[in-house]
Specification:
2 domains, alpha+beta, about 40% helix, single chain
């Protein structure tokens, strides 16, 4: 009987040990499976992070490439425009030279006798008056308005477009104060009573306006085409006298609108040419400049706002929320980078024409 009890006890002990080992094996397998899951999840998270970083890097590279391509396109367009102007100037010069040579041929055949020479002069006065007062074709160059010493005659200066006596629109040498160097500016004498000095003009996209600080400070382009007069010059003019501002706009259908401000003044270079003063608004284009009052002028690589100028690809008195960008890209389409005036159509649709003018008040 005792032998039977021993055998039963041993059998029970064996069964109990087997079950215990089975439970331990199940727990171990469960732990291993959990560790494998966490490892796989961590690897997936790492791969996701790497993909996100790569995607961000690719986007940044694409922005840089697009900007460089746009810059190169702008340079190419500028070179083509310059070559075209040079070609036109060369044609004008050739015509002027031919005319002068023709006049010279008529005037340089002196007779052998003194009394005959005097008679010839008398005949030439009657028949070839151009021998004495030749009409020379004027080429659109600032140098031709200077005298032989390279200076602009003082009698050719005007203090402002408002004081220009002929009241005809065109190019004039302007010297705002005795301390300023004269510059060639365009006076608009027809719109809104005349007396306006144009300081920004865009109408065909021939000039690249996505430029650096030095370009906007000193000015670029030509008064015969698209141009920017220059921040330093604009500051000195608006600091010397009170001025008002006129903004003229057209879309790609030719529809015209304007915005007019009773006062306009920008700060000095130290103040980063901030939009110091902007008066009350009147007009048809809507007031898309009010949010920019007090803002510093911003160009590529010089941005006090803290954002990226590449978002607009221009130069302006940008705010954190900007409603205008008249120095943006010349493009027909809805884009923050285009020439925009939000209240023109309550959108950022690109405009085809922009002209900014100031007048003494």
């Amino acid at each position: 009987m005792s032998v039977l009890k021993v055998r039963l006890f041993l059998a029970f002990l064996l069964l109990t040990t087997t079950e215990a080992h089975g439970d331990e094996r199940n727990v171990t397998e469960s732990i291993l499976e959990g560790l494998e899951y966490k490892t796989i999840t961590a690897k997936l998270d790492y791969l996701q992070h790497k993909l996100t970083v790569m995607d961000s890097s690719l986007k940044e590279d694409r922005v840089i490439i697009d900007r460089r391509l746009a810059y190169q396109e702008g340079i190419s367009e500028g070179i083509l425009a310059t070559m075209k102007r040079m070609s036109n100037n060369l044609a004008d010069l050739t015509g002027a030279i031919n005319q002068l040579m023709s006049i010279s041929n008529n005037c340089t055949t002196p007779p052998p006798q003194t009394h005959q020479w005097n008679q010839t002069i008398t005949e030439q006065k009657g028949n070839h008056h151009e021998c004495y007062t030749p009409q020379v074709i004027h080429v659109s160059r600032e140098d031709q308005l200077k005298n032989s010493s390279g200076q602009v005659p003082r009698e050719d200066f005007v203090r402002s477009c408002k004081e220009e006596p002929s009241k005809r629109s065109g190019k004039y040498w302007i010297k705002p104060t005795e301390h300023d160097e004269p510059f060639l500016g365009y006076c608009e004498q027809t719109s809104f009573g005349g007396g306006w000095l144009v300081f920004q003009y865009r109408f065909n996209g021939s000039v690249d306006f996505y430029r650096d600080w030095a370009a906007y400070q000193n000015g670029f382009g030509s008064v015969d085409g698209e141009f920017w007069l220059g921040l330093e010059r604009l500051h000195r003019i608006t600091a010397a006298q009170n001025h008002e501002l006129l903004v003229e706009l057209k879309d790609f259908t030719g529809k015209y609108k304007y915005a007019r401000y009773s006062r306009f003044k920008i700060g000095s270079e130290v103040e980063q040419y901030s939009l110091k003063m902007l008066g009350s608004y009147t007009g048809t284009a809507g007031d898309s400049l009010k949010l920019h009052k007090g803002m510093k002028f911003t160009t590529e690589y010089r941005n006090p706002v803290g954002g990226t100028v590449s978002e607009y690809e221009g130069a302006w008195w940008y705010n954190y929320v900007s409603l205008s960008n008249l120095n943006g890209r010349y493009k027909n389409g809805n884009s923050l980078k285009a020439i925009t005036w939000f209240h023109y159509k309550n959108s950022f649709e690109g405009l085809a024409f922009s002209r900014m003018l100031i007048r003494e008040v």
